[in-house]
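Lay summary

Proteins are chains of building blocks that fold into shapes. Our project writes down both the chain and a compact code for its shape. Here are two examples, one after the other.
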Amino acid sequence: MKRFLFKRIAVPYVILACLLIIILELFISKAVKDNYIDSLQESLYRQARLIAAQIPSSRADLDDFCRKYKEKTGTRITIIDGSGKVLGDSNEPARSMENHADRPEIRDADIKDVGTSVRYSSTLRENLFYLALAVDENSEKLFLRLSLPLQHVEEAVSAIRIKIFLPSLIALGVAILIGLYQTRKITRSIEDITDYSKDIAAGNFSKRLFNKEQGELGELGRNISGMAEELNTRFVQSREERQKIEAILQNMSDGLLLTDTKGRIILSNAAVKVLFGIPSSIEGKTLLEALRKADLMEVVEHVSRDKEKISCEVVISGPQERYLMTTAAPFSIKGELAGIIFTFHDITRLRKLEEVRKDFVASVSHEIKTPITAIKGFAETLLEGALDDRENARNFLETIKNHSERLNTLVSDLLTLSGIELGDVRIEKTAVSLDATIESVFATLKEKAHRKGLSLQKEIDPHCREISADRDRLMQILLNLVDNGIKFTEKGGVTVRVANEKTKDESSEEKDLIQISVEDTGIGIPRKHLARMGERFYRVDRARSRELGGTGLGLAIVKHLVKAHGWDMKIESTEDSGTQVKILLPPA
């Protein structure tokens, strides 16, 4: 651009300067030549007047007369009669010359008494200046013609042209140099302003314009510099405001999305992508294309038509099921509806808690109703006369006692679980001997295992005999796990194994852990149920569990107590081979 601008100004300037010099040269040369010819014409005219007065009346030997005056004047002299016939000539015999009636200078002289012309003479092979003078001689019209070669005129003009050419060439060179200097100075200022404006357009407001040019270009540069500083100030303010808004939008836990009235997404925050599980950008797409939710397009149409805020619930089926409370409100710019603002609030946890609450109420009601119904039924039977039947009355009372104990166990487990969830149960860790604790658990459940012919075994690594735990809660954990093992094992036994375990954490670093596993050789758990083990009232076989005295809360209590200790629990099982519950905890 720089070279282009300089060439665009300099080249026409140089060409114009050269043309002016050439035109001036031609004009001066022509003026000089015309001046010479005018002087020559005047001189020849005076000579012709003097010679015309000396033309003899006799028409013989006019050639000698012409040669005589040629010697005196140096000009060619020709005498012609009114018909154009040459009567005498200083250079050639008159009788050999052709008729001159058609010569321009003769025709002019015939009309105006004096005629001139400049013609090329084929005889002399050069340009000649001719002057013809009409002479009345005794009622006879003659023409006296004087001619002179223009060679000396052209030589004089050439000499003057050479004298003019050199100063003109110097003047031209000076003019071109001054012009190029001024052109370069102006184009440099324009280039500086252009470069500066490009930097401003590219957002580089740190650059400054130092233009020393005065006049209009200097004022233009100062105006652009001032405009750039003002733009920079406003740009910084705008960027700070935009960063604040972006920070707010990107850190919102709720999703926020702006669309036009056609449902095309204008803006969205990061939470929208997280909630809908979208990895790529969604700006520029419609809600249907980006979120695959046709009902949101209906919301856009409804809000655009009624210009009122509406709320609805949107369910996302994948990749993770979510429930979103969606609010859509219109927004306007300069009084015109510009689009729709969507906000998405994740209510998945509330929904699941609600479902858990409903399941819990239904499960508790069902579990409590069964023993109460049995107790009520057998009590009514006794009151209606079965008391007198001592043999059956005792069985009825035993049944009432068993259901009462089951009801008491159920209420006790519920209170324990509630206490753990509410934080009423505090974990007070002390040094606990695993050998003694496990032995105490075995002593409690020894009779129960013996009745089913099951063995109770323990294998404790000598390096893991003591851990940091709440002894009573650890006792409760092991009692529930070993009791469950006994309930669902018909052959073999239950083994409590304690060993060191190396495992990798999230940063792939190996760390030492103590693993307490309770293993049985029972019926096992089908794989599809493993993920839900530990939920309240969740049992693989409800009828069998209830028959064995299970409430469905034991494993849930274990899970919460393990979590309260800060430990981890895993359940592995193979159907018809047994179950292994692992508790992982850090060394003491």
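And here is the second example, written the same way.
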Amino acid sequence: MKTAKRILILAPHTDDGEFGCGGSIAKFLEDGADVYYAAFSTAKESVPPGMPENILEIEVKEATKRLGIKPENLLIYGFTVRKLNYVRQDLLEEMVRLKQDLDPDLVFMPSPHDLHQDHNTVAMEGQRAFKQTTILAYEIPWNHINFETRSFIRLEKRHIDKKIYALDAYNSQKMRKYASKEFIMSLATTRGVQIGCDYAECFEVIRYII
């Protein structure tokens, strides 16, 4: 596979891309790729009590900055959390615009097996919009009953450290067990063991164009 030069991350919510492929984002940026990050909902309706409703928008700006994504490559939409399936066509049309504007050669998105309604909607509409592009689906383990570990990206510890540093920007999400450093590192180690290296992230292959 040729090295991807223009990469687009589709994130239903502001932190999904970092959880699903934050280490790979760090690696691709290090290799000189141009990375774009589209977050479709800032989930302002479900922020923890006492926090400003735009806290996740503030946090995704900091998190993607920590990964090294250019501020102008961060695209934030205002769709309502848990209701992306109500606006499938609007979502698809935004993705088609992204395809026309960015013409990525690799797209990361949630898995079609992801049980969260917003994640599943982005996965399905993403396949429609980017069916002529290589697509890898990232894992969000707490949302999966099934996940096919078909494709892996080898990573170094510095990539996982950067992923952890980026996710640490989400102060509003630190109560979640899956946001812990230990969980993130152990998952990367598990995926690394599967392919005989120290660290990795794994993906379902949705479409692979050589």
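What can we say about the second shape? The mean pLDDT is 96.
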